[in-house]
Amino acid sequence: MKIVVTGTRGIPRIMGGVETHCEELFPRLARMGYDITVIRRKWYAQDGLQEWNGVHLIDLDTPKKKSFEAIIHTFKAILKARSLGADIVHIHAIGPALLVPMARLLGMKVVFTHHGPDYDRDKWGFAAKTMLKLGERLGACYANEVIVISDVIRQILANKYGRNDTHLIYNGMADPSFVDDPEYFEELGIQKRKYILAMCRFVPEKNLHHLVEAYEELKRQGKAQDIRLVLAGDADFDDDYSKRLKAMAKTHGAVLTGFVKGRKLHSLLSGARCFVLPSSHEGLPISLLEAMGYRLPAVVSDIPANLEVGLPQECYFHLGDIKELAQRLEDHIRSDFQPIDYDMSKYNWDHIAAQVAQVYNRIP
Fold this sequence. Notes:
Layout: E1 2-6, H1 17-31, E2 35-41, E3 51-52, E4 55-60, H2 69-84, E5 88-92, H3 100-105, E6 109-114, H4 126-142, E7 145-148, H5 151-161, E8 167-168, H6 182-188, E9 195-199, H7 208-220, E10 228-232, H8 240-251, E11 255-258, H9 262-271, E12 274-277, H10 286-293, E13 298-301, H11 304-309, E14 316-317, H12 322-334, H13 349-362
Parallel strand pairs: 1-2, 1-5, 2-4, 5-6, 6-7, 7-8, 9-10, 9-12, 10-11, 12-13, 13-14
Antiparallel strand pairs: 3-4
Helix pairs in contact: 1-13, 7-12
């Protein structure tokens, strides 16, 4: 069975939740015998790869402009999929799902994975939000099969569009790789268990500015002691928000690592005191699942996607409440580090790949 994948910037080692999802999922499906081709956005894929871990890679030009790149790339990718003789086009995210009807009209079967209501993201204006909502509707109504990564999203599609046959398949987390990297820590100026870690893209809905404010409040009160704040990640587009965030972080003594993967990321996850995710919008955050895999205590906002993970109540704070966030951080600073053994059984990527394969096999 030939599967062509679009809606992602690409794999491997490309920043983003959808990208991490695809990087973990599709090599596993390739090992199961599926012919997988991922169509990448050439701007992000600078490695020259044509194949990776059994997955075929095709790069297509697209303008690097957040308002247009996804839809233009998906249009080209669907035409490419038809020329490749794809049995199934697997479209990720609601923006690219605008073109689900096009793929169906060209005679291809479509699997659509809904990663979250992106129209709730702060970065989009009215016109973009309207198009994203339309993409959600077209994906939900016209895809042969629909995968959702959380029960929150499943309920959205059932309530808004009457789509009651969606497949709930969670995001996953890779097996942890505990690493000590003293040279990297020395480069960053941090010490093991003496830093708070956040890792995500630098976009408004992640609310990293709230985290920096909470950290600065603790410093002002003399409660941060020798604890550093580490922000691992960057922005796809160096816009006004990301520039302000970086300037704010540097002013208040936070450590900016840039986008990291592999050994450096594993070392940060291995040595953190706690993990923080203060966002206002998520689908099912892979960064949180990764932190849980490394047994890190977590401090997260009380949005539905985070609540669905089912952390202990003391891990949550009310969205936007900087004082409560600061108090949660202080609790971890004042107490000794205690690793937590989470139940991660439903977030196993091998099991997730088998579930996706079952979805593919349902399509006649």
